[in-house]
Specification:
The chain has 301 residues and is an all-alpha fold. The chain has one domain. It is built from 15 helices and no strands. The longest helix has 28 residues.
Length: 301
């Protein structure tokens, strides 16, 4: 039997697989997760491709992933810290700002790259049947790589200036990272699918991210927030409902050693755990919304 004939026999015996994703909230999400896991090798290849594509034909290559946050840090330290005097109220202001920027940059990168991931891979999507979620997930993986480079700089800076305090505060870092990944992936899936039908979404995301950075305590302290919301408990709760705010505070509790005794949001750990649980549900909802919207991707693209 020839190789071609043998292949045809195997294909004839293989069970038929539905082209459309499974329906159902829990069963459908589990089936999609199983499908993605079965294509994990492709997901890794796409992630590596995303990383290489970002620095293609660049002389400095990956160094650019460090230059932008370092320039931003310099601007904030000089303008906000020295000119506006914020460093007088926040000890080790450079570490405080860079910690917040590191967390925010990961969230921003995931959302911006995930939003355009489906449209950017339209050629593959129109030709090959595969779980389309792997494209936003590949963007998440590439963003994590950039985050690792930036976090290394942050870690070295803290070790030189003031090492993190070893203790219960170290738990905040992994919890904050998982919380960030869950919420950013949930948003990324929905935005990636919506951008196929309305291309203005990717530009709207850029504007929202520009404004959203100031809704988190990156260049100002929690004490400044409480001074503005004094007597307005509802405003404070609305502010703390933002999962990115909790993520940045969690990063600061671990990496900002000078603020070990500083005031922070009440019940921060509890708030982060609750937000993580809600985020897990939001992630499943985001995947199901993506699953419904992806059925017409080929026609729209």
């Amino acid at each position: 039997m020839s190789v071609a004939t043998e292949r045809q026999v195997r294909l004839a015996r293989a069970p038929l697989r539905p082209a459309a994703p499974e329906v159902g909230f829990v069963h459908g999400a589990a089936a999609s997760l199983s499908d993605i896991w079965g294509r994990r090798d492709l997901l890794m290849r796409l992630t590596r491709r995303e990383i290489r594509a970002r620095y293609k034909d660049s002389v400095l290559g990956i160094v650019w992933s460090l230059i932008r946050p370092l320039v931003s840090l310099l601007i904030y330290v000089l303008v906000i810290g020295k000119v506006m005097g914020a460093e007088r109220a926040i000890a080790d202001f450079a570490i405080y700002v860079f910690t917040g920027l590191t967390a925010w940059q990961l969230f921003s990168d995931i959302l911006s790259t995930s939003t355009s991931s489906i449209v950017g891979n339209s050629g593959i999507i129109k030709k090959i049947q595969l779980p389309r979620e792997i494209f936003p997930l590949a963007s998440v993986g590439a963003s994590l790589f950039n985050f690792a480079m930036q976090f290394l700089i942050l870690l070295l800076a803290t070790l030189v200036i003031r090492p993190p305090v070893v203790g219960i505060s170290l738990i905040y870092l992994p919890l904050a990272l998982v919380l960030l990944l869950v919420w950013s992936t949930a948003f990324g899936l929905i935005l990636a699918a919506a951008n196929v039908y309305l291309r203005d979404i990717q530009y709207l995301v850029e504007v929202v991210l520009l404004v959203g950075m100031w809704a988190s305590p990156i260049v100002y302290s929690w004490d400044m927030v409480t001074s503005l919301t004094a007597g307005r408990g509802l405003l404070e709760e609305i502010y703390l409902a933002n999962p990115v705010t909790l993520v940045i505070m969690g990063f600061q509790r671990t990496m900002w050693a000078a603020g070990a005794g500083a005031n922070t949001a009440p019940h921060l750990m509890t708030r982060m755990v609750v937000s993580l649980i809600i985020g897990a549900v939001a992630l499943i909802i985001g995947q199901r919304v993506f699953s419904v919207l992806q059925r017409n991707f080929a026609q729209e693209l």
